[in-house]
UniProtKB/TrEMBL annotation:
It comes from Aliiglaciecola lipolytica E3. Catalyzes the NADPH-dependent reduction of ketopantoate into pantoic acid. Keywords: NADP, Oxidoreductase, Pantothenate biosynthesis. This is 2-dehydropantoate 2-reductase. One of its GO terms (molecular function) is 2-dehydropantoate 2-reductase activity.
């Protein structure tokens, strides 16, 4: 049994923490007080396939200052934008043998962790599915995908153990030996995040409208120019391969419904993490998502106009400068960001 700390237990952290507890690991959560209050009766996890597990209350603290233990594994589940601030607390508890698992979306936030702890094992993890909180302490996974932890060939058995500590009836998990490619592939899916925040409707309703899909498809094409130039082969994260995704998204609504029925097999209530950020007036992860594409593209001399325009819109939305444009329609968005031919 290992001693695990989940630092920044929100949607993903509570989901992972409950799976660790289910597997009889020692777990402590670092979370905000209002979250700790909601977990006092334990945690229930369900998924879109009607699986369910329930665990007893997990010890929760609001700061590591109160943690007496040293930890074998720290699962860092804050947003990318909170990683830097988290480091100050992590410095108090990371021991020489502690492994850190960075569970952020996007690219690059783990660099801060690696710089802060150059002698520790720092692994990245990829969360492919959506989690929402349906009631206090009840977290629901609304979409498909296998949680992946980065391999470390020098420590393969340890990573295999981590996988077995986290997988459960509501969480498939695996080891990934090419995390760079997997995170780019996940980033491709996260290009829906900004559009979901701008559209202000559930993901399923957004995907049913071609104009939104066309904008997402164009951002994906820009991403694919970058990954092709870098010779990165993107693994499949959904049932559709990376280069085929923009083609499918571009289809007329009636045909999309038939061809992409598995893509639409998501709960009606799913919204992306960026929608939650905007709704709760929190900073978004846009710089680590679309921003990372623009940054890499610049280095390669590739232009990414649609990603750039969408970034501007998200900044305007965050700064309340979009006024009547919250709930932007597909047509409005298309006209604003797509290149005029
Ligand atoms: N939600 C989802 O469905 C998915 C999310 N992801 C990714 O997973 C990562 C985590 O996302 P998610 O779980 O949604 O985020 P949440 O905002 O739900 O959870 C993060 C939690 O950490 C808390 N936190 C931040 N800093 C500290 C601190 N110093 N001490 C204690 N608590 C702290 C936050 O509180 P506060 O907000 O008050 O700062 C928040 O409650 C992100 O990178 C996201 O993109 C990936 C796939 C799906
Ligand atoms: C699972 C997905 C792609 C969409 O919910 C996500 O990663 C997010 O919301 O950030």
């Amino acid at each position: 049994m290992l001693n695990h700390l989940v630092f920044g237990a929100g949607l993903i952290g509570c989901y992972l923490g409950a799976n660790l507890q289910y597997n009889k690991q020692r777990v402590t959560l670092i979370c905000r007080e209002h979250i700790a209050d909601k977990l006092s009766k334990g945690i229930v996890l369900t998924d879109y396939l009607q699986h369910r597990i329930a665990v007893e209350p997990i010890p929760s603290l609001t700061s590591v200052v109160d943690a007496m233990d040293s930890f074998d594994v720290i699962w860092l589940t804050v947003k990318c934008t909170a990683v830097e601030t988290a480091l100050a607390q992590l410095r108090l508890i990371v021991g020489s043998k502690t492994t850190l698992v960075c569970c952020q979306n996007g690219l690059g936030s783990e660099q801060l962790v690696k710089q802060a702890f150059p002698d520790n094992q720092v692994l990245r993890a990829m969360v492919p599915f959506n989690v929402v909180e349906l009631a206090d302490g009840h977290f629901h996974r609304g979409s498909q995908g296998t949680f992946a932890i980065e391999d470390n060939p020098a420590n393969f058995n340890f990573v295999t153990d981590l996988v077995s500590h986290i997988e459960s009836p509501v969480l498939e998990a695996s080891i990934c030996n090419d995390m760079d490619s997997l995170l780019w592939a996940k980033l491709q899916l996260n290009l829906g995040n900004s559009i979901n925040a701008l559209a202000d409707i559930p993901v399923k309703a957004m995907l049913q409208q071609r104009k939104y899909r066309q904008v997402i498809a164009q951002m994906m094409r820009e991403l694919l120019l970058v990954t092709d130039a870098k010779s990165i082969e993107l693994p499949k994260v959904t049932s559709i391969s990376a280069h085929y995704l923009p083609v499918i998204l571009n289809l007329p609504d009636w045909l999309f419904k038939i061809v992409a029925n598995r893509m639409l097999a998501i709960d009606e209530n799913v919204r992306t993490s960026m929608w939650w950020d905007i709704s709760q007036a929190k900073p978004t992860e846009i710089d680590y998502l679309n921003g990372a594409i623009v940054e890499q593209a610049k280095l390669l001399g590739i232009s990414t106009p649609v990603n750039q325009k969408v970034i501007e819109l998200i900044y305007q939305l965050s700064n309340n400068k979009l006024q009547n444009k919250r709930k932007i329609t597909g047509k409005q968005l298309y006209n604003l960001v797509m290149p005029k031919i």
